Amino acid sequence: MTTVAPDIHRTIDAVWRIESARLVAGLARMVHDVGLAEELAQDALVSALEQWPDSGVPDNPGAWLMAVGKRRAIDQIRRQDRLERKVEEIGRDLETRQVAAGPDDVEEIQDDLLRLVFTSCHPVLSTEARVALTLRLLGGLTTDEIARAFLVPEATVAQRIVRAKRTLTKKKVPFEVPAGAELTERLSSVLEVIYLIFNEGYSATTGEHWTRPELCADAMRLARMLARLAPHEPEVHGLVALLEIQASRIRARTGPEGEPVLLLDQDRARWDQLLIRRGLAALDRAESLTDTPGPYTLQAAIAACHARARRQEDTDWVRIAALYTALAQRMPSPVVELNRAVALSMAFGPAAGLELVDELVGDPALRGYHLLPSVRGDLLRKLGRDAEARAEFERAAELTRNARERNLLLERARACAERAGQPTG
Fold first, then answer.
1. What is the CA radius of gyration of the chain?
2. Residues 76-89: tens digit of each pLDDT
3. What is d(CA 88, CA 61) in angstroms, rounded to the nearest whole number?
């Protein structure tokens, strides 16, 4: 045993953040129940909180927690009076292994984690439940931390997680990595969950803050872990590339008072070059694995065009517009079309972009989407149609739920009103 850390609870919290996913995954493989596995892991954590302040932190805390969790699993199995052969096997294994000795089969740990990823992101669960359960089991976040990240009551998050685990048990979702066509379908669900987590951190939908960097960091950690677990899946590396490159701008996206700074106004010297290099390397990896890049790889390629431009005027907007056209073919979406309109406006002038935006105005999928009037207002402003631009910015401000973004949009509306000679109220 090592010496007791000055702040033992902080040390235990750090250990839990690192080891919880592997612990839950390993126990879930034994008991075939994610909810029960998390309970057993929590029991092991309680034991650590009780024992480590006196005995010190073990040299291999992860193995210690796993050994305690396995003992709890054996007790659970014995209480249920089933799987006697499994109990004997596990019991013999524990008797011959020292508590501090960790698992020596790295592939087994990776397989367990991959099973946990696919289980927590199973399509049988709602999107909100998948996000909450993934952050809980794989991100190691508490219900309070998840609730604060998404600005919802802690009780709501707790209910989502409880219901998710019950659903997995009720539907008898197997703790396994799917194969064949199901693998592709399920992988898209996993990537979507990680992408949603990152996007909420990158552009917060509600609240007083424009970004939540901690949530971005959690998503990147999950994406990197998935890339290690599924190294031959191009879209996994495409997602890693996209997140790394987008995250490189986090520091430049807000001003001194936390106000939003749009892409073309950002100080590119503040972009994180390490994240850019890592993102570009992941993009190279993704592109080397396929001749038909998927949506995340295409989005990463778009982000790379920005990352490679030292000045905003050096951006290759023609290539970005072409990439958005390819993305629209692979993933038809009015949001993609809106982004393509922005690229067209930068490559060929605001009139070209406005023509496409006007075609999207009546799309029911964009009703209530604040970025549609925001983009339209920007294009109208560039065309000198300031009175119309003001109305669009004001409409966008009404639709957004983010306070920082609302203030920015209202400022742009006031600037248009001043140029148009209108009263600003």
1. 25
2. 666 555 444 444 45
3. 25
Read off the pLDDT of each residue in 10-19 and give the average, rounded to a whole number: 82
| Counted domains in the chain | 4
Burial label, 282 (beta-carbon count in 10 A; 0-12, 13-18, 19+):
buried
Answer yes or no: is 141 within a domain.
yes
- The answer to the question of residue 329 being in a domain is no
Q: Is there a single domain that holds both residue 252 and residue 311?
A: yes
Specify which of 195-204, 224-233, 410-419 reaches the highest per-range mean pLDDT: 410-419
Residue 165's pLDDT is 92
Cβ atoms within 10 A of the Cβ of 81, count? 7
**Residue 146 sits in a domain of what CATH number?**
1.10.10.10
Distance CA 114, CA 126 (A): 20
- Report the alpha-carbon distance of residue 275 to residue 241 in Å, rounded: 9
Are 101 and 159 contained in the same domain? no
Q: Which residues are CB-neighbours of 289 under 8 A, at least 6 positions away? A: 232, 233, 234, 237
The DSSP annotation for 187-201 comes to HHHHHHHHHHHHHHH
Range of the domain at 215: 181-315
Q: Count H helices and E strands in the chain, helices first.
A: 19, 2
